[in-house]
Amino acid sequence: MYLTEVKSPAEARLFIQVNVEVNHKDPNYIRPLDKDVNEVFDPAKNKTFRNGEVTRWILRDEQHKLIGRIAAFTNKKYKNKNDEVPVGGVGFFDCINNQAAADMLFDVARHWLMQRGMEAMDGPINFGERDRWWGLIVEGFDPPLYGMNYNQPYYKELLENYGFRGFYNQICFSLKVGDRLVEKFYQRHAALAADPGFTSKHIEKNQLEKFAEDFSVVYNKAWAGHGGMKAIEKKVAVKMFQSMKPVIDERVCWCIYYNGEPVAVWVNLPDLNQWFRYLNGKFGLLAKLKFLWIKKTRPVNKFTGLVFGIVPEFQGKGLDAYMIVEGCRLIQRLKIENGKYILGKPIYEDFEMQWIGEFNPKMINVAESLGTYRSRKLTTYRYLFDRSKEFKPHPTI
Predict the structure, then answer these.
(1) Residue 17 and residue 94 share a domain
(2) What is the structure's pLDDT at 230?
């Protein structure tokens, strides 16, 4: 076996091909879009390069067959609560079921990180935001959501045999869209609906700029300054929603107002991977035309949660229930007649939320209160370079 550092476009293509070679026989595997992976390693596309660096390797066997890959990176802004040492990251790990091969990949990443002053490595994580390529699937090997890692079950053993330990678990929650919500949601909705100050509105593609502005107001009040999260400028939010415009379903993106001021947002998208699975990783001109045809002729049966947020002054007052039930007017074709909540035929069959860290029990409780079930579990692992040092899992927040 021998390692090669990725330094050329040809080697970058092989880096992507490793993922295909290892996983392609799995019917639940969906090849990520090549452009999404390449952009992680492109300084012109990934702002994380301002605060860190990254290197990739591919692994071949004696017959020059691709059998593994890994990326290692540093990021000055990557911090978890109570970290006592500088921590680097590893990600985009793929490997055949061979411990010696996996050890070679982990070793090269560890030595590279040690040379840059790191004393631990977390993985598999992303060189960038946590909403993509984060965590190892350990339960629920269903087709992955867009931007989610997918791996074979034996990866868990490869990491743990090397010495990685679970730093925190990440839970995805799902529910059947046709089922009734727990009764307290309707009661809370009725209470707030009696206040004429509350109104709801779903996104309209011809008013994206207005929705983006309202989104940024809620986002900045609800999240900016927490956990190192930065405020989002209106122009950034507008650009984000413009990029999503081709795949937005207006019926599943909602904003709640009180006396005309935005106080909560709920943003969802169709399960994009149900379309992207037919593109074989490509998204050039021809692939985009194919995508438009697939999107028109193959409706998806699941939608996925991206953002659910309430400004601080309205938290704990039942606004979560109000917003969800308002959304159900279209998502479940819900009718309210004489105080009764009557379900119609839902426009999707399933709903799955992006992961929530188990270190955040409050949000776990919110998700479970919806009547969801745990659909999959991912784990972010940590490896301490000083093996005599006490391992501490991520603290509860």
Answers:
(1) yes
(2) 66
